Amino acid sequence: MIVNFFKFLVNLSPALKRTLWRWWYQIMAKRYQLPDWKFMNYGYAELNGTELDLQGEPEKDRYFIQLYHHVAAAVDLNGKKVLE
Length: 84
Fold this sequence. Notes:
The chain contains 3 helices and no strands. It is mainly α. It has 2 domains: 1-33, no CATH class; 35-79, no CATH class. The longest helix is centred in the first third of the chain and has 18 residues, at 14-31.
């Protein structure tokens, strides 16, 4: 029921949608400060099954890391300062 109400609200207008998602993002960032929660994105997987070579600790965050890699690999970042 709450999910349906949220869907209804975000579909009312683009401005309200942005405001509600920004609010929800802040709620998540403040309430879920867990040591093992490092990423707030959906992740990314290649449709052909290609994966980054990750070993050890980063493996559990594979899909989140792959999203950053997919986006950042599209441009040359050498000598640049990048802000997320």
